[in-house]
Design brief:
The protein is α+β, with helices and mostly antiparallel strands and about 260 residues long. The chain has four helices and twelve strands.
Length: about 260
């Protein structure tokens, strides 16, 4: 029996060369991609960058975090009153030194606050007690609006001549449309209740004596005055829960008016 001869197909070396070349190209391309990926810096979202820049340009807080308080006494004819305030706040004029009925100003130290946008900012509060003859100059433009319905607070130890449950009114000084219900000033408006969206002027406070209010500022300088202090917008939640706002409420509720 004759065994047929085995036929061998001729080898094609050019196919092997092409295959090896293709593998080399793929590996090289992958290597370049990984190299560029590692070297390309990650972009920072615009909102995050803006927030970082805003925070880096702010002065450091100076609040001590102390919970101690002290009493202030005003011995004037019109501003004949007492109240308690945080020990690390400054008061002018000095206690027991206001026979001429000067406006009393309480200023908080710089402190960290979360604003209405969720950003952490450096801020302060300035609480003023003005005689009834003074004018609420911040309301003179006629553009201020009530940000939320007035709510009542209770004085802890009112005098016989003092209404125990006055209204606090939340004022947005910039005016215009205020869809977020934010505010940068609170005023004790006595027995007068204001409604959200209502305009408020100095005349709206006619008969109010004394004029007791607190304004909130965001600080870009250590002095936090002039151009270094801009309005800090608060929400109802921040008013209830931030330490700075709670300190203002402490002063409000401790007032004893003669």
């Amino acid at each position: 029996m004759v065994t047929p001869a085995t036929t061998h197909k001729p080898r094609r070396p050019w196919l092997l060369t092409m295959g090896i070349g293709a593998v080399v190209v793929v590996v090289a391309t992958a290597g370049v991609f990984v190299f560029l990926k590692l070297r390309t810096p990650k972009s920072t979202p615009a909102s995050t960058a803006a927030s970082t820049n805003r925070q880096s340009n702010q002065p450091a807080p100076t609040a001590t975090g102390s919970s101690s308080t002290q009493q202030y006494i005003s011995n004037g004819n019109d501003l004949n009153l007492k109240f308690t305030y945080p020990s690390d706040w400054t008061a002018t004029p000095a206690s027991n030194n206001n026979a001429s009925d000067q406006t009393i100003a309480l200023t908080s130290p710089l402190t960290s606050v979360t604003d209405s946008t969720g950003a952490t900012v450096t801020a302060k509060a300035v609480l003023t007690i003005r005689p009834g003859s003074a004018q609420a100059g911040e309301l003179a433009s006629g553009s201020a609006t009530v940000a939320q319905d007035s709510t009542q607070i209770g004085y802890t130890s009112p005098t016989a001549s003092q209404h125990q449950y006055p209204y606090i009114t939340y004022v947005h000084l910039a005016g215009g449309q205020n869809t977020g219900s934010v505010f940068d000033e609170v005023i004790i408006t006595g027995i007068t209740k204001f409604m959200k969206g209502q305009g408020i002027t100095a005349d709206s406070l006619g008969g109010l004596d004394p004029i007791i209010s607190a304004r909130f500022y965001q600080c870009s300088t250590n002095a936090c005055d002039g151009s270094g202090a801009t309005a800090l917008n608060l929400t109802g939640d921040l008013w209830q829960n931030s330490t700075l706002a709670q300190q203002v409420q402490l002063v409000f509720t401790s007032l004893q008016l003669s």
